[in-house]
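Before relying on records like the one below, remember that each one covers exactly one chain. Contacts with other chains, cofactors or solvent are not represented anywhere in the record.
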Amino acid sequence: MQMVAGGQTFLFTDLVGFTALTAAQGDDRAAEVALDFYRRVRPLLSTHDAEEVKTIGDAMMLRCEDPALALRLGLGIVGELEAVAGFPPVRVGMHTGPAVSREGDWYGATVNVAARLCAVAGGGEVLVSEATREAAGRVRRVALGDRRLHWLKNVTDPVPARLASERPCAMTRAHPLRSIKSLAGARPLGAGT
């Protein structure tokens, strides 16, 4: 048995509407979608210093030692799969804290909370516990929504969490002074050359 005291960040991610997809399109198609999901997520792990703990049907359990990289990974997973036309929406929940490792798997309250946060996230959402936010500190180009309490199944106390999103790069936003300067230098419509 190995107890990790400092804290690990666990991410759970799954496909929203997978049961309905299975009912509508059959088991074979659902299995193909789940395997495609895994294939698209796995290349993101190495660039975020993350590891795949296991897959469970249409879900993946991931572990990251760096909570800031975990935040980026969660957003990367959602972004990667939103870009695939017709792919079911993906959701991510994450939590940071101590956990117990045994025979290649992880156990404990931290793992349970991460799984429960995933279950309450909506399609296309990355739900980050306050513990993960605090451990990550400020992460460039990541915006965090308002802190909300979540009453999670089989968790005694409410868990504070926030929705994470990509913050647009400053270069992609229109700069008001540039817009004014370009208008000031523009010729009126119909002016001759």
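Strands lie at 2-15, 50-56, 59-64, 90-102, 105-107, 126-129, 142-144, 148-150, 159-166.
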